[in-house]
Design a protein that fits this description.
Layout (H helix, E strand, L loop, with lengths): L3 E2 L1 E7 L19 H10 L4 H5 L16 H13 L3 E14 L5 E10 L3 E2 L8 E2 L6 H14 L1 E2 L3 E5 L3 H15 L4 E4 L5 E7 L3 H10 L4 E5 L1 H9 L4 E7 L5 E3 L2 E4 L6 H10 L3 E4 L13 E5 L2 E6 L13 H13 L9 E4 L5 H9 L5 E5 L4 H9 L10 E3 L7 E4 L5
Helix pairs in contact: 3-4, 4-7, 5-6, 8-9
Length: 407
């Protein structure tokens, strides 16, 4: 039995030179909306122009829903201009080669939405593991319903047969010849794809990809959107533990609303140990402390844990959300003053945002380990919001699923 199936009608990017390619970072990988606008301006064919139509240069300031007709028109135009090629009844091999020559592997497929499980008492082989921001889910539902396609995949981690899947994809890639298309991301990683039609190779890959429990590594909002929209399947890249790493997921706060001394006092009142930092604050090497940076000073903080709480509730990201943002600053997780900043942005970049006055506080948090992430999810516990930044990430706009062809 497998819960991974061929894509009935896939539109594969045809590649192209800079400014004429559909591939892009996923819509939720940016700390600054202006970056999205800049990318769309430089590359109107980018999947971002479809997924974030309200960030296009001519649409900034308009509501997301009002811009959905533009998204529909842009995707149709990209097809008509030959930026996508139709491939029916395929799975798609995926290879990502880093600048040091290391390779990550995955398989593009459709995965059964009905298999999503969010708790121990909910059956299903796809484990979704983070709380979400419901407004983002509503936007993804509206986009899918408007354009009738899925452009960004959910990244799923094959926990039971990861080694077998890794070897099988590597072997299939080695035998596949030249890729159908390739794309280079801003970090210099080369993304390559090969469609695989009906036959023994495709069937074996799908059996490995969809056999056993799959953990959502990236795309919690997209997977919930598929459920909310009533889609029978969602677009996914099934990858392997050997292919991925978890980078830091930090926070910026645009306004504190109080002095640095008051902030430290409030934080100390939560039970935290707050120690002035003499060096340049970096991301902690291991969990247990977080580093803070403001124009008024920097501190190393040990937040209070609860011996009776679950392991998840004592993760650094949960403690930051509960004590630092909640108790000390009075901020809800979805407050617009909080920016969740993934591992593509360095500690120096976050400090620079504070120095430039675009934020008042940078919170630097050690990354979760892959082993801890898998263990938490197999126990059907839920990770804190925005706590895992997996790399490398699958590119949007490489493989697009046409929802009209779904069974």
């Amino acid at each position: 039995m497998t819960i991974a199936h061929p894509i009935a009608r896939a539109w594969l990017t045809t590649g192209g030179r800079a400014g004429q390619t559909t591939a892009a970072q996923n819509y939720d990988e940016f700390a600054d909306d202006a970056e999205i606008t800049s990318i769309i301006a430089a590359n109107p064919s980018s999947a971002l122009a479809v997924e974030m139509p309200h960030r296009a240069p001519e649409s900034v300031g308009r509501a997301f829903g009002d811009c959905l007709p533009d998204a529909v028109a842009r995707l149709a135009a990209a097809k008509q201009q030959g930026h996508y090629a139709e491939n029916d009844d395929v799975a798609v091999l995926y290879s990502i080669t880093a600048t040091d020559g290391s390779r990550a592997y995955g398989l593009w497929t459709m995965v059964e939405t009905g298999q999503i499980s969010t708790s121990a008492d909910e059956p299903g082989l796809v484990i979704r593991n983070e709380d979400v921001f419901i407004e983002k889910v509503r936007e993804r539902v509206a986009l899918a319903q408007a354009v009738g396609h899925l452009l960004s995949p959910v990244l799923l981690l094959q926990t039971a047969r990861g080694d077998e899947l890794h070897a099988a994809i590597a072997s299939a890639v080695a035998a596949a010849g030249a890729p159908a298309a390739s794309d280079t991301d801003p970090a210099g990683r080369v993304h390559e794809i090969w469609p695989v039609g009906p036959g023994e190779t495709r069937d074996r890959l799908l059996a490995l990809a969809g056999g056993g429990e799959l953990v959502v590594a990236d795309g919690n909002h997209r997977s919930l959107a598929a459920q909310t929209a009533g889609l029978p399947g969602f677009l996914a890249v099934v990858t392997t533990p050997e292919s991925v790493a978890i980078q830091p997921y930090n926070r910026l706060v645009s306004e504190l609303g109080l002095s640095a001394a008051e902030f430290v006092a409030r934080l100390t009142a939560t039970g935290a140990t707050v120690t002035p930092s003499t060096g340049t604050p970096e991301v902690p090497a291991r969990s247990g402390t977080v580093n803070l940076y403001t124009k008024a000073g920097a501190w190393t903080v040990t937040l209070p844990t609860d011996g009776s709480a679950s392991v998840v509730d004592n993760l650094d990201h949960a403690l930051v959300e509960r004590h630092l943002l909640g108790d000390a600053l009075g901020l809800e997780p979805g407050d617009k003053r909080i920016t969740y900043v993934g591992g593509d942005y360095s500690a120096s970049w976050l400090r620079g945002e504070v120095d430039a006055g675009r934020a008042e506080l940078a919170v630097l948090i050690a990354p979760v380990t892959v082993d801890d992430f898998v263990a938490v999810n197999l126990a059907r516990l839920k990770m804190p919001r925005k706590s895992t930044w997996f790399t490398p990430k699958a590119r949007a706009g490489l493989v697009v699923a046409d929802l009209a062809a779904q069974a």
